[in-house]
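Holo model, adenosine-5'-triphosphate. Inputs:
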Amino acid sequence: MTFVVGLTGGIGCGKSSASQCFVDLGIDVIDTDVIARMLTKPHGLAMSSIKNSFGETMIAADGSLDRGKMRNLIFLDNNYRVTLEKILHPLILTETLQQVKKARSPYIIIVIPLLFETGDYDKVIHRSLVVDCEEQQQILRTIKRSKLPEHQVKAIIATQVSRENRLKKADDIIVNNQNMAFLKEQVAQLHKKYISYS
Ligand SMILES: Nc1ncnc2c1ncn2[C@@H]1O[C@H](COP(=O)(O)OP(=O)(O)OP(=O)(O)O)[C@@H](O)[C@H]1O
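Output:
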């Protein structure tokens, strides 16, 4: 069985940046956010269930999920979040497991933003890796990249597991509080370690 590392971290902490560093080292990276987007494209596997549960109002003109509208809706009422997650999470897990089977690198990284929130991947991963930075930096990076307003970024952070708990649960931590070179250096060290485990 291939050695599997679950990479997580709060919004904007640098999960995509860190996972790109692993890709550059030849490692297969499976990104559950990419899978979620694939499932909610026009004709995506999740779209008929989303239409049944939420109606046409959540569907954009091209037939994909209207992510902005859905984001607003699930902030309004947590029941909507639960409904959406009940549709998406099993489909994401199934697709992830299929991609794990196809992966060929010495070990695999799965990017799972909600790794510690869901527990869905406890039996899939051998080790957890948290990409961490200070909350202020996290907020600035997220605003810069997503153009979401600060209050919405803070609201998203509040729905995620706390930084303290995430760090407690981490097997490995990337301290992403400097530049890209510092991030790459830490990924290179972890790469050596994971190769030795695989
Ligand atoms: N070490 C770094 N140096 C400079 N910029 C960085 C660094 N790490 C991340 N960033 C920038 O911060 C922003 C957020 O990073 P990234 O997209 O990797 O985070 P993420 O955790 O994947 O975010 P999300 O949870 O929203 O998907 C991006 O614009 C990225 O370029």
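Strands lie at 3-8, 28-31, 107-111, 127-132, 172-175. Residues 9, 11-17, 113, 141-142, 144-145, 176, 179-180, 183 surround adenosine-5'-triphosphate (CB under 6 Å).
Archived with the compound record.
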